C-alpha cells in the first residue's frame, strides 16, 4: 500500500516539473547567449593567438651502471693476488642499491641544472628583451634572476619521464622554438655525461693522490703491492671514463625536430572557448530563472499568509 502511494507521489512530482519556463527563458535570452558565445570565442582567440605554439622534443636514454668498471672489479681481476676487503671497497667505492634512483636525482638536481644553464648561457632565452644578440651581452648591465630561471626551467621546460617497465628515461624540453627544444634535450644528455665523468675523474685523482702519498710512507712490501694494485685499478677506471663517450647515459634515440606543437591548435582552443561560453551563459540564464521563481514563490506565500491572517482576524472579530 505504501509503495503504491510513494509511486503515485513520485509520478505526481514528475508531472509537476514544467520545462517550458526554461525553454522559454533560453528563447528569450537567445541574443544574450549568442553574445556570450561570441565574447568567449573572442577572448579565447585573443589568448590563443597571443601565446606561441610550444614544441616538445625528447631524447630516450638508458642509465649506464658506472659502478661496474668493466673488468676492473676486484672480483673479476685475473691477477694472482687476492685483494682484501679494504681494496675491494677502495676500488668500487660506495655501492648504491638504488643506483638508478640516485642517477635520476642527480639528473634533475639543482647543482647540475644550474651548471647546465650557466654553461650554455640559456638565461638569455628567458629574458630576450634584455639581451643584445649583436654584442652578446645584457642591455644596461641587466642581471637575470638565476633562481627564477631555474624554477621556470624545472617546472615549464624540462621533463624527465621514466618507463617503469623498461627503465628507459625520456629527457624532454618544451619550448616555442622546435630547434632549441631539440638541441637542448641533446645538450642536456651530453652535459650530464660530462658532469658524471668529471665527478668520477675528480674522485680518481683524489684517490690516486692519497695512494701515492701512502706509497711513499709504506715500508712493508705487502702494503706496497696492495697500493700498487689500487693505483692500477684507479688508472683503469680513469681510462674507462675517458674512453666511454656515453658514460652515464646511453643514448637510445636522440631528440629529433618536432613537427607538431605540444599544445592544442588555436582553432580547437577557440572552439572549446565558445562551448565554455555557451555553457556558462546557459547556466546564468537558468540561475536567473530559478532565482526569479524562488522569489515569486516566497512573495506568493507571504500574500497567501496575509490573506489567511486577515480572514482569521475577521472570523475572530465576528
TrEMBL record:
It comes from the Bacteria. GO terms for molecular function: protein tyrosine kinase activity. GO terms for cellular component: plasma membrane. The chain crosses the membrane at residues 29-49, 270-291. Keywords: Membrane, Transmembrane, Transmembrane helix. PANTHER family: FERRIC ENTEROBACTIN TRANSPORT PROTEIN FEPE, TYROSINE-PROTEIN KINASE. This is Chain-length determining protein. It comes from Halioglobus maricola.
Amino acid at each position: 500500500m505504501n509503495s503504491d502511494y510513494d509511486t503515485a507521489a513520485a509520478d505526481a512530482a514528475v508531472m509537476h516539473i514544467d520545462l517550458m519556463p526554461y525553454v522559454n527563458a533560453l528563447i528569450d535570452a537567445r541574443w544574450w547567449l549568442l553574445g556570450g558565445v561570441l565574447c568567449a570565442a573572442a577572448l579565447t582567440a585573443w589568448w590563443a593567438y597571443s601565446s606561441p605554439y610550444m614544441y616538445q622534443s625528447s631524447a630516450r636514454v638508458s642509465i649506464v651502471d658506472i659502478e661496474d668498471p668493466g673488468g676492473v672489479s676486484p672480483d673479476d681481476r685475473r691477477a694472482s693476488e687476492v685483494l682484501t676487503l679494504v681494496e675491494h671497497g677502495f676500488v668500487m667505492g660506495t655501492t648504491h642499491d638504488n643506483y638508478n634512483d640516485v642517477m635520476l636525482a642527480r639528473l634533475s638536481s639543482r647543482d647540475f641544472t644550474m651548471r647546465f644553464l650557466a654553461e650554455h648561457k640559456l638565461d638569455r632565452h628567458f629574458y630576450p628583451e634584455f639581451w643584445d644578440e649583436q654584442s652578446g651581452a645584457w642591455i644596461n648591465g641587466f642581471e637575470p634572476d638565476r633562481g627564477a630561471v631555474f624554477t621556470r626551467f624545472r617546472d615549464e621546460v624540462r621533463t624527465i619521464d621514466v618507463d617503469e617497465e623498461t627503465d628507459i628515461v625520456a629527457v624532454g624540453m618544451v619550448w616555442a622554438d622546435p630547434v632549441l627544444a631539440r638541441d637542448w634535450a641533446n645538450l642536456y644528455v651530453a652535459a650530464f655525461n660530462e658532469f658524471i665523468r668529471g665527478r668520477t675523474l675528480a674522485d680518481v685523482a683524489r684517490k690516486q693522490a692519497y695512494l701515492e702519498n701512502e706509497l711513499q710512507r709504506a715500508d712493508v712490501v705487502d702494503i706496497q703491492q696492495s697500493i700498487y694494485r689500487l693505483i692500477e685499478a684507479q688508472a683503469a677506471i680513469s681510462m674507462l671514463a675517458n674512453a666511454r663517450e656515453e658514460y652515464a647515459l646511453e643514448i637510445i634515440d636522440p631528440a629529433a625536430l618536432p613537427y607538431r606543437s605540444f599544445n592544442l591548435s588555436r582553432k580547437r582552443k577557440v572552439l572549446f572557448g565558445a562551448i565554455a561560453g555557451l555553457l556558462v551563459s546557459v547556466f546564468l540564464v537558468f540561475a536567473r530563472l530559478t532565482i526569479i521563481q524562488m522569489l515569486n514563490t516566497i512573495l506568493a506565500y507571504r500574500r497567501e499568509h496575509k490573506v489567511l491572517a486577515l480572514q482569521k482576524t475577521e472570523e475572530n472579530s465576528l
